[in-house]
Amino acid sequence: MPVDAMYQALKAKLHDVVPDVELRYKAELAVEVNRLKKEKNAVILGHSYMEPTLYHSIPDYRGDSLELSRKAAQTDKDIIIFCGVRFMAETAKILSPSKTVLLPAKEAGCSLATSITADDVRRLKARFPGVPVVTYVNTYADVKAESDICCTSSNAKAVVESLPDDTIIFLPDEYMARNVAGETGKHIIFPGLSSRIDTEVDFQLVGWHGRCEVHEKFTVQDIARIRQQFPDVVILTHPECSPEVVDASDFSGSTTAMIRYIEQTQAPRYLLLTECAMGENVAAANPDKEILQLCSVRCPHMNQITLEGVRDSLLHTQYVIEVPEEIRMRAAQAVERMIAIGASGA
Ligand code: 13P
Ligand code: SF4
């Protein structure tokens, strides 16, 4: 696509969100990225949290963690550029070891992924022998390798319910674990690594204390304030929010589930309690719908991915994601078991 056509396409979608001068500059970058992508036989995967000009111009596929990991497993391209955070790019490498997987930023971490180590999981397994470990994909490969099965925000309940065991270890997101416990009627405990377990306590889920630094910031008071101002608002939350926030909302689901919900319903207005870029992307894709924003919160990791970074990643083959083969093979089992279950158990 020539630069002017790209500029017009971006302008049609983003004229309310991005200043015109920036749109022109971004259109040039997007065209260069798309040219390099073809030349290098690359595929670009774009998570729902990518900034609007990137999200609407270069990804071959957009979606939530589960959908993008499926695409990564299926691609026949030589290079996978993951426009998301490191654990997502690692998951792509786990599933497609023969491909070159590139993350267009050096770090792009995640507060959940850094909340737990493989050693922590081994110690938990020693404390709860024989109890299966379900690990949220927002973890690094060595943690996945210690797990029986992974899950994403779109299939956490289905994954837990797929296991025949009475008791399950669910790591590392405290709030997602509490949300799953509520949905499945399980009692959850959060044992410290060194403290004793009270054998009298009845529990079916063992959680960890990881939190998403973005979603933990939303409060029930935010919801009450917005509802007071806009009584007809429909509020959507990501399951990384606290159970109190999820309960006070109208719908909770993965980033794609929230996008679909808005596409398929007709409400006067919506509020998305999740990373802000997604609100802008949803507003651009649904010009007939009013999307309210609560934008004090941005993911500092997702925000490291830029069009400039993607161009440089294609030009210089950076930053290459590697996973040691012994860890990759064990992590792949946990991710593939999850993929076989699918979204919401479908
Ligand atoms: P999704 O799997 O819903 O896209 O979420 C990933 C994530 O990091 C949310 O903060
Ligand atoms: Fe991690 Fe939260 Fe950022 Fe998602 S939004 S990548 S869970 S820190």
How would you describe what is shown here?
By secondary structure, this protein is an alpha/beta fold. The chain has three domains: 3-108 and 302-316, NadA-like (Rossmann fold, 3-Layer(aba) Sandwich); 113-211 and 324-341, NadA-like (Rossmann fold), CATH 3.40.50.10800; 215-292, NadA-like (Rossmann fold), CATH 3.40.50.10800. 44% of the residues lie in helices and 14% in strands. It has helices at 3-14, 20-39, 52-55, 65-74, 86-95, 118-127, 141-145, 156-162, 174-184, 220-229, 243-248, 255-264, 276-285, 307-316, 325-341; strands at residues 42-47, 61-63, 79-83, 100-102, 133-136, 149-151, 168-171, 188-189, 205-206, 233-237, 251-252, 269-273, 290-292. The strands form three sheets. A five-stranded parallel β-sheet has the order 6-5-7-9-8, sandwiched between helices. 49% of the residues are buried. 1,3-dihydroxyacetonephosphate binds next to loops. Iron/sulfur cluster binds at residues 85, 110-112, 138, 212-214, 240, 275, 299, 301-302.
Brief summary of the model shown:
Helix content is 44%, strand content 14%. It has helices at 3-14, 20-39, 52-55, 65-74, 86-95, 118-127, 141-145, 156-162, 174-184, 220-229, 243-248, 255-264, 276-285, 307-316, 325-341, and strands at residues 42-47, 61-63, 79-83, 100-102, 133-136, 149-151, 168-171, 188-189, 205-206, 233-237, 251-252, 269-273, 290-292. The strands form three sheets. A five-stranded parallel sheet has the order 6-5-7-9-8, sandwiched between helices. Strands 2-1-3-4 form a four-stranded parallel sheet, with helices on both faces. Strands 11-10-12-13 form a four-stranded parallel sheet, with helices on both faces.
